[in-house]
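Board notes (copied after class):
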Amino acid sequence: MLVERTDCILYYAEPCLSNEYGIGWIGGNAPDFFDDQAEDIHDGNQSYYFYLSFVHPFKCDSMISIFIPKDYEEYLDNNIYPRCSIKVIEHPISTESVKDLFTNPGLVKHVISEGVICNDEKSMDQSFLIKLGGNPRLIQHKDYYFTKLKEDSFSFLFQVDEDGYPDTLLQDDYSYPFAFGSLFIFAEIGSNEILHPVAGF
């Protein structure tokens, strides 16, 4: 998945029928790990919304959580590594908080399903919420998106694709956080570990 990149894992969002969640959730409250970290997540005058959280596919005791600026123009203007204002944080496994410190009013909480292994080439023609490994399905094939990432030894880890949103995920009168686009996450991928996940673009 991360070396030969012939296969990938696809994840989907499903309506939340109880307080349980699959391998994570999109929308809803942030993990309770962040209950006392509001000052660390918010940057000065820039406040953040929780976007999603799911169990790290290669570290069963860790999760990856994503926070996006409340100000859409902020991450529209700062949308390419190393000036991407979207926060990607690896942290210990946590349950969903009962506090709505970071809750995005535009997203209805959905669970993230268990992953399904798929041939990478076939995945290019499918809808999904998250695609882990394989090669990114790009909207624009522009080399400058990757230049600094390659210089700093980051490789593609996963993408979140708004084409995979169920109809029930967005609240009425709210827009897609990425304008019906995708978010691409990269990391330092070694032979034995995956370090420092970051938002690429």
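Comment from the instructor: Residues 101 and 174 are 19 Å apart (CA to CA). The chain has a mean pLDDT of 94.
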